């Protein structure tokens, strides 16, 4: 399967990438990792790119690593439409102090607009 | 943390403080109390959530199954601020009362134990009324008493998120003074400032 994973720059993004790497190793998927431009997140786009790069090389996974500029939701969906992807993977929401699951606007945009199957990682 | 949350300029209130006994629209006597610690009433509250209809869950809470409910409540119990509504069955003078609704505030802080003033931080709200007791005005009373109690303990900023299609809850929150505070997604974020 040809998988595209989108990363914002939160801890949730790191968890999503780790799980996707594990899955890639188990089943031999083709993986593309897209680092999005999301100024308000914990890691800058550059930092997230570096971290993704080292996680991939530590795991020995040969993946395409790209930076996508512009609005994160639409950039990711555009990229999914350009390529031959079977699945798009994103983080599955954060937990509020109360324990409520919160899905942000990017998740909503991707779910409503992506041409492929979308997987939310928890 | 991410962007700063917005709050209305104008404070809302005053709100009533617990304890109170109110009569709901079905003529039932409902007692609203604020336990000093949720742990005192934990078993009764767990039991209420165990009876909660899973179709009425909101954003994954309450969890289902007694163990997971207890675990969830214990995780947030320590520093939370709670109000609990009990129904005393008619004619039952000193018999068992049943917990039929619960509302709480949970501190939005990495280290809640280190909080000096409750007004320094923001508090997340949630409210649940057992199905058989919904639409009888209890939610409105309970919410007002939670905000009254919050104000008594110095809390000023309260926020919540609610599924955008949960009209009963949004109507309830707006009525007491909550305003939408941005974020357009599956959840509507709302906030209130207390006097
Ligand atoms: C939201 C909730 C707490 C409201 O409690 P409640 O005791 O039913 O509320 P009230 O009876 O005080 O009703 C308040 C208003 O909400 C509206 N409302 C309540 N239930 C409604 C329903 N099923 N459909 C449409 N409107 C409804 C009405 O406008 C009502 O106004 P009214 O008093 O003029 O009729 C309760 O429905 C509940 O526990 N829901 C499930 C959990 C949840 O969604 N919690 C909120 C997110 S944490």
Automatic annotation (TrEMBL), chain A:
Q: Name one Pfam family in it.
A: Usp
UniProt superkingdom: Archaea
Domain annotation UspA: ranges: 2-122
Q: What is this protein called?
A: UspA domain-containing protein
Organism, by scientific name, is: Natrialba chahannaoensis JCM 10990
| Lineage summary | Archaea, Methanobacteriati, Methanobacteriota, Stenosarchaea group, Halobacteria
TrEMBL record, chain B:
| KW Transferase (keyword) present | yes
Name of the protein this chain belongs to: N-acetyltransferase GCN5
Fetch the Pfam families from UniProt.
Acetyltransf_1
Which residue ranges does the record annotate as region Disordered? 1-28
Q: Which InterPro entries does this one have?
A: Acyl_CoA_acyltransferase, GNAT_dom, MshD_Acetyltransferase
List each copy of the N-acetyltransferase domain by range. Answer: 30-195
- Keyword Transferase attached: yes
State the source organism's domain of life: Archaea
Species annotation: Natrialba chahannaoensis JCM 10990
Q: Which UniProt keywords apply?
A: Transferase
GO terms of molecular function: acyltransferase activity, transferring groups other than amino-acyl groups
């Amino acid at each position: 399967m040809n998988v595209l994973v989108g990363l914002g720059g939160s801890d949730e993004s790191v968890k999503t990438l780790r799980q996707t790497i594990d899955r890639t190793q188990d089943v031999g998927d083709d993986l593309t990792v897209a680092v999005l431009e999301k100024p308000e997140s914990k890691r800058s786009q550059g930092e997230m790119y570096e971290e993704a790069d080292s996680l991939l090389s530590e795991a020995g996974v040969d993946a395409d690593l790209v930076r996508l500029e512009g609005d994160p939701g639409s950039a990711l969906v555009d990229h999914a439409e350009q390529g031959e992807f079977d699945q798009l993977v994103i983080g599955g929401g954060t937990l509020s102090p109360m324990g409520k699951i919160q899905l942000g606007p990017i998740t909503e945009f991707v779910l409503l607009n992506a041409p492929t199957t979308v997987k939310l990682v928890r | 943390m991410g962007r700063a949350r917005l709050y209305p300029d104008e404070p809302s209130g005053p709100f009533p403080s617990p304890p109170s006994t109110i009569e709901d629209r079905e003529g039932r006597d409902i007692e609203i109390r604020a336990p000093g610690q949720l742990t005192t009433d934990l078993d009764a509250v767990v039991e209420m959530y165990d009876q909660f209809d899973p179709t009425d869950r909101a954003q994954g809470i309450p969890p289902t199954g007694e163990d997971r409910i207890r675990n969830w409540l214990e995780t947030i119990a320590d520093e939370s601020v709670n109000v609990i509504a009990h129904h005393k069955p008619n004619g039952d003078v000193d018999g068992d009362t049943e917990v039929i609704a619960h509302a709480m505030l949970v501190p939005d802080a990495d280290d809640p134990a280190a909080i000096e003033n409750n007004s320094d931080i923001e508090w997340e709200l949630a409210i649940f009324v057992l199905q058989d007791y919904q639409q009888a005005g209890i939610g409105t009373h309970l919410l007002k008493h939670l905000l009254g109690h919050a104000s008594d303990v110095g809390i000023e900023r309260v926020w919540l998120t609610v599924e955008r299609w949960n009209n009963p809850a949004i109507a309830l929150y707006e009525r007491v003074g909550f305003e939408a505070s941005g974020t357009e997604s599956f959840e509507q974020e709302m906030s209130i400032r207390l006097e």
